[in-house]
Structure formats: structure tokens, C-alpha cells
Amino acid sequence: MHASSSYHAYLIESLKDPVEAAAYLDAVLEDGEIEPMLLALKNVAAARRGLGENSDSFEASWETYYQTFSCGEVPDIRLISNLLHELGLKLSITVRDEQAA
């Protein structure tokens, strides 16, 4: 197996854990770049699809998310929030380290 495909398989497997998925997204979002964020969301969605009670409803709405990401559209905050919610995650705001007292 090619090294990058084995890493990708490992990444997808690790992102099945919601704590790992949240840490991964948090790290990617820290950079503030849109393309890596969209790729990270795709990876988490790929890992988390089909896990859990609402998998049928997620599968039904996944096509909308996938089309948005695939067409190069930048999803709005509502779409990202809905996707995260369906993945068992949520958005949050924190104080930057240098601003913390």
C-alpha cells in the first residue's frame, strides 16, 4: 500500500473518535485557511458517516454537503454548523492564548 494512502486510511480511522475529530478540526481551523478547513471537514465527514443513530438522515443530507465542497463553494457558517451538529460536534469560540489573563 502506498504510504500516503495508508496514512489517509489511518487518519480516517482515527477520526471516527469524536474527541480526535474535534482536535483535528480545531488544529486545522487555527490556521484560518479555507481550503485545509474544507478538506478537514470532508475527512471528518468521511470517517463519521454511518456511525450512530442518525446515520440515515446524515446520508440523505450528505449529498448537499458534498456538492458544496466539491463545487469549490465556500459554505456559510450555518452549513458548517449543521454539518458539525450532524457529526456530533459543535462550533465554539475561545480566547486566544495571548489574550488569556
From TrEMBL:
<protein>
    <submittedName>
        <fullName>Transcriptional regulator</fullName>
    </submittedName>
</protein>
<dbReference type="InterPro" id="IPR014057">
    <property type="entry name" value="HI1420"/>
</dbReference>
<dbReference type="Pfam" id="PF21716">
    <property type="entry name" value="dnstrm_HI1420"/>
</dbReference>
